[in-house]
Amino acid sequence: MYDSAVVRSGLALTVGRVRGFTGAEPSLHTLFLPSTRPSYHELLNLIVVDVMTSRAELITWVNDLLQINYTKIEQCGSGAAYAQIIDSIYQDVPLSRVKMNANQEYEYLNNFKIIQAAFKKHQIDKPVPVTALIKCKMQDNLEFLQWLKKYWDMHYPGGQYDAVARRKGAPADPNPLIAAPAAPKVASNGAARPAKTLGASTGMGARATSRTGTTFGTQKEIENLTTQLEEFKLSMEGLEKERDFYFNKLRDIEILIGARVDSKDGKVSESEMENLKQMQAILYSTEEGFEVPELDAGLVDEEETY
């Protein structure tokens, strides 16, 4: 958990945290710029939502707020939940025109037109990637829902929101777009294969259908996980570059301070020496409970003779 003192100072990440952190977060360059430094509440919100909020927590938040029973982030791709989240803030979205249990692409598009109209009305400066969202892919909808959660945290007026009453009791459990069923197989002579009689073969057909559905779901999950992995790799590469950038700066400072402390010319005053020692103490300090890992003796010798 981030210390409140670090948050107040506008530094959401220490060098140690940057080394070990692997998720998405606001750029350190932005956090260090006074002109763009967010307030305490906004910074805390950025940290909590961007870093700590999991998919399960977001789904729980959506379900609690809207009194629905979503099980996946992808279900938000219908646009119905997004529309009502905006309505929970301003309570002027025409929910009677929102298809809460949309299951066709044209219904999704209609919902997003209503969302875009609400964004324009309230001057919400955020592009809505409709084409990506209506594909009901996890990553696109996760990113948009994370942003919407941050926006909601900053603008929700408070009080109780009666989601069911606002949508006049309309059901809100969508059936996501699924692949169309395959056409029946045709025999070599062009005639359709006859349907099998009921009996033992019925059970076999049911099991085959079950396996097909399971395979489809597993393949989709693999694709989603592969996409997430690529995103994490890119995020890791960026974080490693940022980590090295700041580490090298600290290393240069350490060398300058060390050279001054070890100076033999006798020009270092007692007060300056005290300040230098304090700087070294800050550079070498660690978080409470942190233990410096023991280095292999051979590795140490190799580094010293480099």
Automatic annotation (TrEMBL):
| Compartmental location | Cytoplasm, Cytoskeleton
Q: Which PANTHER family match?
A: MICROTUBULE-ASSOCIATED PROTEIN RP/EB FAMILY MEMBER
> What InterPro entries does the record point to?
CH_dom, CH_dom_sf, EB1_C, EB1_C_sf, MAPRE
Is the Zinc keyword given for this protein? no
Per the record, the coiled-coil ranges are 222-249
Q: Any idea where the Calponin-homology (CH) domain is? A: 52-153
Protein name, entry field: EB1 C-terminal domain-containing protein
Q: Which GO terms describe its biological process?
A: cell division; nuclear migration along microtubule; protein localization to microtubule
